Each structure stands twice: as structure tokens, then as C-alpha cells.
Amino acid sequence: MQTEDHVNDSPASLAILIVDDIPENIMLLEDVLGELNYTTHGAANGLQALSVLDDIPIDLIIADAMMPKMDGFQLCKSVKNNPKLSSIPFIIYSSDYIDEEDKDLAKTIGADRYVVKTGGTESLILAVSELLNIADPKIKFDPNQQVLPLDDHSFLERHYKLLNKKLEEKMQNLEVYSMQLLKKNEQLVRSEERYRLLFEKASIAIFMLDASGRKLINANPYAVNLLGYTKEELLANKNLLFADYEDGDETIVEPGFSGEMNIRTKEGKVICLESDANVIEVDNQQQILLFSRDITERKMMVEKLYQSEKLSMLGTIAAGIAHEVRNPLAGIKLNLQFLESKHPDFVDLDVLQLAIKGAQHIEKVVENTLNIARSTVPDVRIVSVNDIVSQAVSLLMLTVHKKNIGLDTKIQNDLPSVKIDGKQVLQVVLNILRNAIEATPSGGEIFVATFMEDQSETELKPRLICSIRDTGVGISDEYLKAAFELFKTTKISGTGLGLSLSRRIMQQHGGDIAITKPQTGGTEIKLYFPLSL
Question: Which end of the chain lies in a sparser environment, N or C, as judged by fewer CB atoms within 10 Å?
């Protein structure tokens, strides 16, 4: 309890009661006043403060103006109305009640100081120092500014008016905050909808993975359609199906990745995606967003352009070959053949014959090279593919019998005619058949068939197909990828030009050629012909 001679007390012997419903505010003042060697006690509201005052001698009270159960004004009036406590200096410390009428109410109920929190703790410390060093504790304010104390009814009336005013202010602030929050929510909903539409309607594939880059979390409709799965099937795989993925392997997409990746579709087709990976934060968790563009067709076009450039370069080379090699080569071959016929008993006749075969091989390379280099426009007419296939089979039947190979032909009747250059296509069929005969061992079999493409296997208009399948050793995966490149061959005596020439002829007719490895072994080559209008 404060006494009249407390002015001589040291701060360490003075006890201050801090009343505030916010624990952090109490802790702050305890730290500040503790450094000045004051003893502090805390209470969360006016009722707790009265309980502390009954048990502990207190030299000064600091109370927040607004508190639940009993606020600072009510506590101050209770203290000043209690003869045992009325001499204790009382400071109301507020950040809400800062109007003059608030300060005036504090004066009328006997508050010694009214300190605004926005002024910082310096003004509060000054008020504490002044009050605890006043010789006459009954003097609270400047005597010239003394006002008569309020009776209970007047205090309740003014206190109610004050509370009602503050409540209205709080309600107005709450209404403004509510409107701001509603506006923010509307903006957030619009933003989420905008990003959702971008994700759903994007014309590129978007994959969302976890922070490790292993688990697939989400994919947009474009990505789902691109890979041929339903969304549930794709997410059930838990990761992206890389073309070289095997069970047990971990596929990882690292943040910042930028480059190409090969993905396998549901149908088993491998497509090339140009992708960029970026880290985003969703619900306070990092995830990886992978943007991917299908560049499979573009890569094919680049490859075709590369082949076209090769053919263009080959045309220049072929012109030189025609002038510099073809005529001298013909003379060499004729002279060698003349020597062979003139001297049938020549001791090294086999060497001579080997030279003749070498010259013939060179002549064949030159001829094929010139065929590729020539940009002959096809002489297109309405032709039956069945007739061309039958003609090619007849021309090579003798070779088939000599090698003891079976030839099974299944020519489908009533196939529609197509617009093609019969001579050029015959050259293609003969080339493919010769390759099949050379690849098939004695006792093997070759299957030749013509039929219409199954419309359920393609979204395009069905095409007429000529299939030639052998039962040879098959084709390696490495060669299969580069089968149509110039000078690529698996045969010792091959030129590596036949398939390139065949593909060029088919594409000039609006068709195509494909090489596959049947499960039964060997190699199958299909020629695709577009139907005539």
C-alpha cells in the first residue's frame, strides 16, 4: 500500500499492478518496468485486479481502458471508491479511448493519468515516475483542473454512452473490414477461376508433380488426351511414363529442367515433349509445374527436311558421277567382259569375274543414286495395286524357286483403284520383294497381301495397304530407327539407297511406307496408298 513517505522508497520496493487482457502487453510492461527495478504483478481484467489488491500491497496501478468483465474505467471507479485503495495512483493506458471526452471521464472518476499507447512506453514511464514521487498522493491532476467526482448513476450513464460509442466505431470498422474481406474473397475467387480456366483450357500439356519431382499429382485435359488415358488412369500410374521407364525405376523431374523428354502413350506410341519445369507454392507446399509441348511431328518434319537436304546434295553429287564415273565405268565393264569371253581358260579367271561383279555393283550404285537425284514427276493414272503386285511376284518367282522359299499371296478382290505411276510403284514393290528374298533363308516363307486399312485403327480416311512380310532374322532396333536414311544398309553388297528411293516415291504419291517387327519374327513392310477421289 502506498504511504505518504513512499517518496523516499527505492523503486525496488515499489509494486506496480498491470491490468490488461492481452498477455503480450503485460509482458512488455513487465520487461520495461523490471529494468527500472519495479516489482510488477499482472491481471487480465478488473475483477482479477481487485483480487490482487486484496492480497498484495500495490503502490501504483496501470490499467487498459477496454477489457472484458470489468474495464479500466470501472476498475478505477471501484478503487477510488474504496477508502483502503483510493490513495493508490491510477493510470489508464489506452489505444482505443483517445478522445477528449474519454480523458474527461477518466478525470471525473479519479484517474491520476490518462496515457495513450500510441505515444510509446516513454510517456507511461514518465507518468509512473511522476506519480511515485508526488509528496501528496491525494493530488492527482493539476489542482486548477480538478472536477467533482461522479456519482454511480452519472458514471454508468457516461460509461454506457462511451461504450456504446466505441461499439459503434468497432461495428463500423468491422463493417469496413467485412466489405474489404468480401472484396478480397471475390478477387480471390476470380483469380482462382482464371487460373483454373488457364489450366483446363490450355493448348499445351500441364503436369503437376510433388516437390520431389516423382509423384504425379494432377494433369490438365490436354495432357490427358495427349497421352490417351483417362485422368483417373493417368494419376493411378503415380508418375510420368517415360519411354525408357521400367518397373522399379524412379522417374524424377528436377526444378528448372528445360529440354526434351520421351513419354509413352497408352497405345504404346512414343512422343517427344519439349518441357519446362518450374516450382510453385500451393497451400504452403512446394510443387513442380511441368509445361510440355508435343514436338513429335516437328521433329519428323526436321528429319524430313534433313533427308531432303541430303537428297539435294546427292543430286549435285549424282550429276558429277554421271559425267565423271558412269561412262568410264561402262568402258571398264565392257573390257572386262570382253577379256572374260576372249580368254575362258585364263588362270585367274575368278579374279576377273570378281572385278566384273565389282564394276556391276558400282554401276548399280550410280544408277540408284541417279534415280534418287532425278525429280521426275509421276505419270499418275488410275491403276490397280493388285495388278502391280501380281506383276512383281511373277518377275521374281524364278528367284524365289531357286532359293527354295515359299511365297504366300493373299490378294483381296474388289479393292478400289488408286491414282499412281504404275512403273514407279512397281519399282518400289520389286525392291521390297528383293530385300525380303535376300533376308529369308532357304525353307523360309514370304507373305504378300493387299487389303483395306481397318478404319477402327485410324481417325483418317482408310487407305489401301500392300504388306510384304518375310521370315528372316529380322531387323535390329538400331537400324529400324534409321532405315530410310541414305546409305544405311544391313547387306554386304547393298547400296543403302533402295528404301530411301522407295519412300520418296511413296510420298510423291501421297502415300507412305512403314517398317515393323512382327512378334512372329522377320520383318514386315507396309505400303500405304491413298484412295482416288
Answer: C
Q: What amino acid is encoded at 150 in this protein?
A: L
Q: Is the pTM of this model over 0.85?
A: no
Question: What residues contact 3, with CB distance under 8 A and at least 6 apart?
Answer: none
Q: What is the CA radius of gyration of the chain?
A: 49
**Pairing verdict, β 270-282 and 418-420:** unpaired
Which secondary-structure segment (H or E) carries 435? helix 422-439
Residue 356: which of 339, 376, 370 has the closest Cα?
339
Q: Where are the domains of the chain?
A: 6-150, 202-294, 299-373, 381-529
d(CA 387, CA 393): 10
At 146, is the secondary structure helix, strand, or coil? coil
Contact 333, 358 (CB under 8 A): no
Task: Check: CB of residue 338 under 8 Å from CB of residue 293.
Answer: no
Cα-based distances in Å from 369 to 326, 448, 487: 11, 28, 10
Chain centroid to CA 95:
50
Write down how long the chain is: 533
CATH fold group of domain 6-150: Rossmann fold (3.40.50)
Is the separation of the CB atoms in 270 and 242 below 8 Å?
A: no
Q: Please say whether the beta carbons of 447 and 468 come within 8 A.
A: yes
* 3-class DSSP assignment, residue 19: strand
Classified as helix, coil or strand, 461 is coil
- Looking at residue 516, its amino acid is T
How far apart CA 88 and CA 262 sit, in angstroms, is 83
Amino acid sitting at position 472: G
pLDDT digits (tens, 9 = 90+) for 268-308: 788 888 888 888 877 778 888 888 888 888 887 877 777 66
Tens of pLDDT, residues 126-156: 889 888 874 344 444 443 444 445 566 566 6
Contact 409, 393 (CB under 8 A): yes
For domain 381-529, the CATH class is: alpha beta
Tell me if the domain spanning 202-294 has CATH number 3.40.50.300: no
Query: Going along 57-137, which residue ranges are E strands?
Result: 60-64, 90-94, 113-116
Q: How far apart are CA 420 and CA 464, in angstroms?
A: 12
